[in-house]
Amino acid sequence: MRQPQLRVNSFTAPAKVLMQRFAFLALLLLSVGLVILGKVDSVLIERGRAVVIDAMAPVLELAARPLLTAKDGIAAVDSWFNLYEENRALHEENERLRAWASTARRLAIENATYRELLHVRPEPQVRFVTARIIAEGGGPFVRTVVVDAGTNAGVEAGQVGISGTGVVGRVLAAGEESSRLLLLTDLNSRVPVALEGAQARGVLEGDNSALPRLSYLAAGIKVHPGDRVVTSGIGGMFPPGLPVGAVETVANGVVRVRPWVRFDKLDFIKIVEYKGEPGPIPDPAPPSGAPLPALNTPGAAEARPAELAPPPAPPPIVTSTPKPTLLAPADDR
Amino acid sequence: MTEPWSRRAFASLVMLVPPLVGLVCVLIGVAPSGISGLDAAGPALTLMLVYFWTIFQPALLPPAAVFLVGLLQDTLSGAPIGLGTLILLGVQQFVGHERRVFTARTFGIAWFGFGMVAFLATAAGWLLGSLHAGRGIELQPFVMQMLFSITLYPLVSWLFGQIVRVLKSLEEAR
Question: Which family does it belong to (chain B) (predicted)?
């Protein structure tokens, strides 16, 4: 059956082969050109990519639907088998959270009182959009996801993606109806982080593996598996105190962190607009007088949830309307 | 001597089938799988497509079609644009050149051939990716993808085979 076909091919070969070879060479050069262009002018290439992804978004959504349905089905069956175990775990968690809720309530009141006393400018309202993942990286080169919300929903490049458990990554490029997020684990991801409770800052560097590396820690810092890692807020890209993960291994000076986000279980991502806006007083004078009490007393560190971790910079203090407060410097009066 | 227009229209419709199958492969490749670990290294469906059609119906998958499929894959998957395209074009040329070797009597040899091609494509992908990044990048996802692809090749090539069979039976029915 195959033999005649080969004969026909060899009969019509010369012109066709020549043309195909030329086409191949031209396309090869074009591909190389695109790779180089992507390296030289990544903004142009990424903009083009955003346009194509935007145009393809409905198709991507349609293609993702059967898989999502199957995933939901598997999850439903799975939860049927684990009902008893899950119920028990939820009861336990509920008990624990009840205790936490009372602590949080007390801390919130305390916090509000201190903020009022110190005249701390109210924190800006955080705007966020929740978007569904419609495509994944799918290849070994990158760790990115595409979500179904773009500039029309207020998403912009640089915004932070979080899930219920922690930081997912940040928005790399936004189209009108879709945007692409760079995950924590991607080769190009760099997130300024800190070890919670210790004054140790570093950078979480992705390398396409499941466990990104914690680098640029100051010498002499003791790191142990299980230490919590949160964003440090340095650089202004990420707000401080967002949970990132826990130290997994420390070997030969290489610290690996396991992100709390299960990237394979992600369906939705909350994209948060965070602006490190300058305060109303651009240059707050350093407070003189008695030093502030240490923020990291062992008891305080224990009772503080991750979201309330101390920001690296002191909050702006309104000094123009001095009032006798507990922490007011003596020479202000 | 000229062919009736319906025949020509059918022939050009047939030409569209492999690139459309390629489009479906790309879409499945980037769809959120949600299976642990698989998101990092789904099987290289487009590689299987290029290997299969270059062996069995090379006329239906010209370099331009491979280029478009590769370009779309790079764009949607977030990979450096042009890198995957380059590898797919290379695979097409290599398989096309050695077609007589790969056109095996038994499926085992075709499968072995695919294993070899997948290995070469993986090595090339890792090398080019590392060159692009300016440092050696994580090898594990590449190896995982290669193993997944080799494991799934019998199933996927059977599906491709069914498409080819349907096309042939349609042509014979005319």
Answer: Belongs to the MreD family.
Choose among A56, A179, A212: nearest CA to A171: A179
- Does residue B41 belong to the interface with chain A, where contact is any CB pair within 8 Å? yes
Nearest alpha-carbon partner for B160 in B68, B48, B27, B67: B48
Considering the entire predicted model, what is its pTM?
0.75
**Chain B contact for A111, CB < 8 A?**
no
Q: Which two tokens stand for residue A246?
A: 């826990």
- For residues A162 and A197, membership in a common domain is answered with no
User: The complex's ipTM?
Assistant: 0.87
Q: Report the CATH number that the domain containing residue A140 is assigned in CATH.
A: 2.40.10.340
Contacts with B, A 38-67, CB within 8 Å: 38-39, 45, 48-49, 52-53, 56, 59-60, 63-64, 67
Q: Is A190 on the interface with B (CB under 8 A)?
A: no
| Residues A192 and A256 placed together within one structural domain of the fold | yes
Nearest to B79 among A23, A53, A141 (CB): A141
Domain count along chain A: 2
Residue pLDDT, tens place only, A90-127: 999 999 999 899 899 999 999 889 988 888 877 666 78
- pLDDT one-digit tens code per residue, B21-43: 999 999 988 888 765 444 466 78
Q: Are residues A174 and A191 in the same domain?
A: no
Q: How many domains does chain B have?
A: 1
